[in-house]
């Protein structure tokens, strides 16, 4: 429909006239508004295009503006006195019609008069007559005659000269200097005047005029063939350079000598264009062609000729020669192409068209003109069949697409437009035209698989990446996606998407070059998350290729990356040092301890750990020492190793190896030595009390031997040494100093033991026994920490007080007593054994009572209780701000009766000691003072002042005494006793207290540094005091109100879940204890 309307319009326009409008404008600067085309032509909403003479103009909608400065003197340089016209041809896209706009440029007075020579110098003969005139150089003005030279004025202070204006046939004015009075060269040889030229506006120019007085030259040159001072001729524009004009204009002078010698020149009035086209011979006056005249440029030239003699006072004759240029068919037609619907970047010789441009569509307007003024029509045609030219007005053609464009077949079409004029000898202009076919984005990128050159829209890549690779490692290099389109449609950009895209980046070689996928940062395999299957999932990337066309097309390929773990982490032990203990009763295969290590590598190949003894430290330092009695058994988790006893050891047989200090290494099975970790292990062998002490009686002057038995004979003497005794014990950790000897009670009234500095004992007889045989009972006891052993021996001593028995008789009696179980001796032995057993039972009962019960003693009107707790797992809460308590069911039968051992006005509740074993939590927040309340009614207790406590693992308290004597003195001197406060396991925890003056000698209790459970002793002996890590003792004061000291409460901690269970004694038990 569109093109039908266009055809109808063209049909109406054929043979019609072009709408024309005229507009008068002044000279204007660039960017000046000139006229609105709709108002000028009476149209509305037309879409205008400039198609000719558009160099100095531009359209903004329907408004016409100057694009550059409009200067009449530049545009119409040779049409000074003619109208200055510019014809603009406009094309309306709305009605597809050409319009003519004729602009008349009016002149402005923007130029001042100009003298070609300045200053001006002329000569007057001294015999010049008054009234003699001298022609002066006239001024010129580039403005039109409207603002041309109006008048001249003269400034002559001497009043010797006056000025008149000579009017030429072309109405130009030439100033003439007139002599007013007689000159006298001897009186004044030169004059300085001022000549001013005024134009018809408000501009003027003044030059200096120098008048020199010379001798007389009284004849003026005369022109031959230029009668009346003017002459006109016509020439063809095709005259060649150097050809003379068909005119003979010469001048003569009647004077002789220099005054009669004539030279020719152009007057200053002759313009530059005429001087450039025509050359004047200064000697002959001949005029020839200097530059080929062009009718199309300048149709008429005016030459102002001067014939000047060479006298002292030159005389000048003037001739005006008008040269008319005749037109010739010497100009080829001109072709001007204006793109209309082409793509941006198109110009008059190159058109850009998309390959989907519609067939029959209007591409451009072609105007054909002929500078020759012949009035003949011109014709135009295009060579390529894909396009056609149709004339819709005289000299105006439409360029249309005649066939479809195909970018894939031809990207560039080069053709010509031929324009021919209608002269008898026609001239043809061949106008080259290039059509660049632009591709449309109808192809998407395709990925080229490496190797076989196959193209695929969607493909997958499987690659492996070691975690050892550094940033910048090229994962995939030189991959390219191709696009059959061109330009931006075929230029491809790449981007990475997917959950792991942040770890990589793309690098493209140049613009639209191959792409490489590069590691953006080093990846640590061990920091990645394992999925629910227990495996590290593959990393995923989406490589997207996008062209730059509109609409944009893209394709995607998936890249799956398998990250390979490297053994880049060495195993690390859970501790740098381990300490273990075992006793000599441990059997082969007994577990000594466990060492653990971790490896941050995730893959099993690098996370399994192999434990070994370091070879150079796997046995003792002494080469004769038996080898390491341990072996390592790997744990099922491959992260630990059990240190197991490889053979049974005996503390006494391995005296040099009671402690082992060695190194265990942890390594991955395939690691190198540099990736091995080490841990130092110390193992101590504990002695067990396996042997009974022995007593040996050494011979002395009182000792005798009968039937291989040693006995002593004591005469009637008192305080005599009967025998020297030596004690021994095969246990390696027990020395003679660790063994004590005591005489049984049945013998202690007659004998006593005296220790010596050498560790031996002397058995001394102290008297009071009648004659007869005495079996002295001696008990040897070792002081081993656990399971002490003792041995009782009977030593025969015969008291021969009266001296009635001789040695033989005494020997017989001793021998007989051994064979017949002498009643005295046997009864004495059995009685002694029974007494010792009774004493031991009483001591044991007393110790148990003191370890498990409360002992009561009167303290005035108050009752105080020494509170001890059952078991090493009982813990005491000492936190004001919160603690967690629970109960356990591991008590003895008579302890399981539930007691309401804690009472609370707040949230604190109670629990029984026979719960499920899992523990019950008892919150103690907001409990005022954390006071403990005991039933019926409880005694008032408090803890002494403390400055620092720990909060790690709590210890068992135990009743402490320094020794029996001090305790006895304490009971008599004060009503205070001490208990150990549960303290932190940390060796840095210390409880500082201030006991009353009566208890100043009490000290802190020490514990073993490396024991898992703190060990407490009833007596603070030398062994306990030698330990290093300390816990402290607090005062249990029976005379103060129950409360926790604020210093203790401020260092609150949360306890491990352990039970606090106290056995509250019944009244009957209290009486029994008393």
TrEMBL record:
Q: Which Pfam families match?
A: Cadherin (PF00028)
Where does the protein principally reside? membrane
What are the record's GO terms for cellular component?
plasma membrane
Q: Does the keyword tRNA-binding apply?
A: no
State the source organism's domain of life: Eukaryota
Cellular localization per UniProt: Cell membrane
Residues in the signal sequence: 1-16
- List the transmembrane segments: 828-849
Give the record's membrane topology: Single-pass type I membrane protein
List the biased-composition ranges (Polar residues).
901-915, 999-1014, 1048-1059
What biological-process GO terms show up in the record? homophilic cell adhesion via plasma membrane adhesion molecules
Q: Which residues form the Cadherin domain?
A: 116-223, 227-335, 353-447, 457-573, 574-695
Where does the record place the region Disordered? 887-925, 986-1014, 1040-1074
Does this entry carry the keyword Metal-binding?
no
Please list the GO terms describing molecular function.
Answer: calcium ion binding
Instruction: List UniProt keywords, sorted A-Z.
Output: Calcium, Cell adhesion, Cell membrane, Glycoprotein, Membrane, Repeat, Signal, Transmembrane, Transmembrane helix
Task: Report what the protein is called.
Answer: Cadherin domain-containing protein
Organism of derivation: Oikopleura dioica (Tunicate)
């Amino acid at each position: 429909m569109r093109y039908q309307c266009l055809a109808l319009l063209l049909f109406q326009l054929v043979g019609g006239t072009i709408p024309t409008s005229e507009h008068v404008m002044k000279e204007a600067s660039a960017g000046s508004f000139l006229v609105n085309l709709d108002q000028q032509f009476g149209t509305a909403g037309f879409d205008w295009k400039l198609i000719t003479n558009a160099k100095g103009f531009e359209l903004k909608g329907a408004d016409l503006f100057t694009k550059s400065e409009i200067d009449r003197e530049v545009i119409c340089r040779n049409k000074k006195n003619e109208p200055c016209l510019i014809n603009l041809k406009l094309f309306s896209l709305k009605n597809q019609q050409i319009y003519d706009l004729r602009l008349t440029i009016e002149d402005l007075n923007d130029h001042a008069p100009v003298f070609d020579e300045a200053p001006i110098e002329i000569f007057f003969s001294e015999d010049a007559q008054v009234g003699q005139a001298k022609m002066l150089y006239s001024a010129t003005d580039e403005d039109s005659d409207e603002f041309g030279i109006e008048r001249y004025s003269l400034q002559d202070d001497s009043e010797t000269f006056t000025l008149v204006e000579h009017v030429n046939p072309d109405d130009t004015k030439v100033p003439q200097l007139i002599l007013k009075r007689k000159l006298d060269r001897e009186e004044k040889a030169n004059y300085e005047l001022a000549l001013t030229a005024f134009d018809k506006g408000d501009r003027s120019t003044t030059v200096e005029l120098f008048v020199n007085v010379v001798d007389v030259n009284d004849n003026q040159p005369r022109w031959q063939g230029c009668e009346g001072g003017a002459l006109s001729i016509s020439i063809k524009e095709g005259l060649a350079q150097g050809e003379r004009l068909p005119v003979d204009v010469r001048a003569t002078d009647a004077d002789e000598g220099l005054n009669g010698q004539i030279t020719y020149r152009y007057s200053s009035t002759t313009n530059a264009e005429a001087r450039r086209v025509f050359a004047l011979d200064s000697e002959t006056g001949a005029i020839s062609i200097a530059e080929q005249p062009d009718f199309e440029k300048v149709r008429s030239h005016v030459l102002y000729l001067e014939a000047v003699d060479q006298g002292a006072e030159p005389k000048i004759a003037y001739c005006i020669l008008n040269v008319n240029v005749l037109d010739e068919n010497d100009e080829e037609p001109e072709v001007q192409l204006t793109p209309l619907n082409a793509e941006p970047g198109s110009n008059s010789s190159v058109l850009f068209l998309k390959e989907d441009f519609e067939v029959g569509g209007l591409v451009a307007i072609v105007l054909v003109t002929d500078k020759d003024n012949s009035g003949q029509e011109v014709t135009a045609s295009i060579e390529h069949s894909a396009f056609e030219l149709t004339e819709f007005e005289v000299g105006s053609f439409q360029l249309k697409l005649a066939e479809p464009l195909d970018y894939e077949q031809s990207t560039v079409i080069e053709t010509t437009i031929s324009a021919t004029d209608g002269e008898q000898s026609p001239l043809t202009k061949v106008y080259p035209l290039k059509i660049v076919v632009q591709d449309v984005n109808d192809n998407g990128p395709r990925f080229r698989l490496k190797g076989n050159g196959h193209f695929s829209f969607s493909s997958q890549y499987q690659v492996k990446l070691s975690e050892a690779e550094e940033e910048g490692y090229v994962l995939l290099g030189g991959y390219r996606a191709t696009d059959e389109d061109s330009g931006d449609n075929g230029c491809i950009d790449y981007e990475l998407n997917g959950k792991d895209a942040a770890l990589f980046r793309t690098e493209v070689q140049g613009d639209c070059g191959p792409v490489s996928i590069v590691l953006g940062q080093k990846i640590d395999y061990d920091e990645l998350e394992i999925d629910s299957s227990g495996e590290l999932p593959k990393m995923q990337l989406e490589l997207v290729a996008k062209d730059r066309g509109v609409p944009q097309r893209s394709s995607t390929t998936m890249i799956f990356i398998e990250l390979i773990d490297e053994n880049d982490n060495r195993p690390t032990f859970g501790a740098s040092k381990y300490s273990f203990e075992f006793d000599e009763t441990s059997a082969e295969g007994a577990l000594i301890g466990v060492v653990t290590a971790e490896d941050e590598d995730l893959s099993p190949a690098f996370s399994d750990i192999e434990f070994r003894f370091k070879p150079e430290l796997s046995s003792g330092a002494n080469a004769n020492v038996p080898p390491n009695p341990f072996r390592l058994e790997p744990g099922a988790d491959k992260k630990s190793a059990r240190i197991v006893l490889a053979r049974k050891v005996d503390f006494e047989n391995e005296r040099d190896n009671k402690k082992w200090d060695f190194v265990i290494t942890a390594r991955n099975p395939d690691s190198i030595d540099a990736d091995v970790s080490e841990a130092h292990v110390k193992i101590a062998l504990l002695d067990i009390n396996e042997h009974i002490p022995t007593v040996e009686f050494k011979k002395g002057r009182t000792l005798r031997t009968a039937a291989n038995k040693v006995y002593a004979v004591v005469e009637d003497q008192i305080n005599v040494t009967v025998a020297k005794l030596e004690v021994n014990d095969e246990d390696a950790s027990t020395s003679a100093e660790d063994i004590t000897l005591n005489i049984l009670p049945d013998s202690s009234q007659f004998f006593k033991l005296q220790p010596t500095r050498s560790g031996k004992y002397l058995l001394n007889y102290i008297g009071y026994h009648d004659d007869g045989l005495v079996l002295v009972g001696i008990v040897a006891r070792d002081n081993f920490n656990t399971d002490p052993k003792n041995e009782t021996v009977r030593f025969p001593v015969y008291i021969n007080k009266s001296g009635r028995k001789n040695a033989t008789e005494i020997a017989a009696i001793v021998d007989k007593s051994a064979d017949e179980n002498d009643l005295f001796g046997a009864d004495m032995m059995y009685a002694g054994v029974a007494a010792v057993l009774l004493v031991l039972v009483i001591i044991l009962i007393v110790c148990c009572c003191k370890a498990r019960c409360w002992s009561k003693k009167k303290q005035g009107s108050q009752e105080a209780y020494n509170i001890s707790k059952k078991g090493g797992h009982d813990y005491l809460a000492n936190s004001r701000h919160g603690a967690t308590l629970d109960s356990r069911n591991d008590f003895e039968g008579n302890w399981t009766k539930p007691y309401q051992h804690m009472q609370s006005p707040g949230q604190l509740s109670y629990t029984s000691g026979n719960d499920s074993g899992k523990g019950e939590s008892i919150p103690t927040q907001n409990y005022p003072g954390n006071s403990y309340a005991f039933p019926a009614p409880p005694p008032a207790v408090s803890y002494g002042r403390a400055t620092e406590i720990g909060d790690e693992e709590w210890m068992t308290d135990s009743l402490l005494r320094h020794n029996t004597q001090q305790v006895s003195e304490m009971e008599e001197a004060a009503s205070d006793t001490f208990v150990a406060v549960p303290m932190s396991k940390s060796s840095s925890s210390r409880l500082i207290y201030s006991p009353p003056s009566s208890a100043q000698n009490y000290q802190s209790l020490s514990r073993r540094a490396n024991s898992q459970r703190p060990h407490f002793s009833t007596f603070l002996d030398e062994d306990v005091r030698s330990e290093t890590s300390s816990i402290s003792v607090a005062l249990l004061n029976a005379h103060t109100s129950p409360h926790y000291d604020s210093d203790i409460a401020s260092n609150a901690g949360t306890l491990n879940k352990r039970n606090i269970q106290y056995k509250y004694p019944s009244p009957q038990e209290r009486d029994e204890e008393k």
